[in-house]
């Protein structure tokens, strides 16, 4: 497998965690979203992913983009360890939390939107994340065990950790979100979350390395 990734991309991080949890080795091709006006806009990368976004994964003779589509494929083809619970209610909760982050928070504060916000980008990102986290905190109070849904790591957790990192980068006050904070801290102690961390990628700048 070949993963097209950017060290700081929260979407690419989700996929890196899934690959690590499932023990899938891969070659990493860095796509720098800032350098050269954004390497994702090159003709070469557009041929890989017409949406000009990371991640993209070449695997089993196909090329997939969109982090959740990639994770679902990995789940379908390499089911161990499981990232979606067998219980239909818990499975629905996992998908709900993942969608909450992937559709309701992250796209509103990603690079392409922030570029358009100009000087207000920090305030905009903080507001988008805070309103999403208020809802997420409430949901997690009903679903969480050690992790987002019960005591098994799931696709929801793969979405939560990178989003908390975004929140910290945009200096969001995490005080009002004790459940999110607790789960994030627990997850960051797991090896798959450590090795996939933005501070430990081949394309991480020297000053940001762990």
Automatic annotation (TrEMBL):
Gene3D superfamilies: 1.20.1050.10, Glutaredoxin. InterPro entries: Glutathione-S-Trfase_C-like, Glutathione-S-Trfase_C_sf, Glutathione_S-Trfase, Glutathione_S-Trfase_N, GST_C, GST_Zeta, GST_Zeta_C, GST_Zeta_N. GO terms for biological process: glutathione metabolic process; L-phenylalanine catabolic process; L-tyrosine catabolic process. Its main location: cytoplasm. Pfam families: GST_C_3 (PF14497), GST_N_2 (PF13409). Residues 1-82 form the GST N-terminal domain. The keyword Nucleus does not apply. Belongs to the GST superfamily. Zeta family. This is Maleylacetoacetate isomerase. It comes from Pelecanoides urinatrix.
């Amino acid at each position: 497998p070949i993963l097209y990734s950017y060290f700081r991309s929260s979407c690419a991080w989700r996929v890196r965690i899934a690959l690590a949890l499932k023990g899938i080795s891969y070659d990493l091709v860095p796509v720098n979203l800032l350098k050269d006006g954004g390497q994702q806009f090159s003709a070469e990368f557009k041929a890989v992913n017409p949406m000009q976004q990371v991640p993209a994964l070449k695997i089993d003779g196909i090329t997939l983009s969109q982090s959740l589509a990639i994770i679902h494929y990995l789940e379908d083809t390499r089911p161990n360890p499981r990232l979606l619970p067998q219980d239909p209610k818990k499975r629905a909760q996992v998908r709900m939390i993942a969608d909450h982050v992937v559709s309701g928070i992250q796209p509103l504060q990603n690079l392409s939107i922030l570029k358009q916000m100009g000087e207000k980008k920090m305030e905009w990102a903080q507001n988008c994340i805070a309103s999403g986290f208020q809802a997420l905190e409430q949901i997690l109070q009903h679903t969480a065990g050690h992790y987002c849904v019960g005591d098994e790591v799931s696709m929801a957790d793969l979405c939560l950790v990178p989003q908390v990192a975004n929140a910290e980068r945009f200096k969001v006050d995490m005080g009002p979100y004790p459940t999110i904070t607790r789960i994030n801290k627990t997850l960051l102690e797991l090896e798959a979350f450590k090795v996939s961390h933005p501070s430990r990628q081949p394309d991480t700048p020297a000053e940001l390395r762990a």
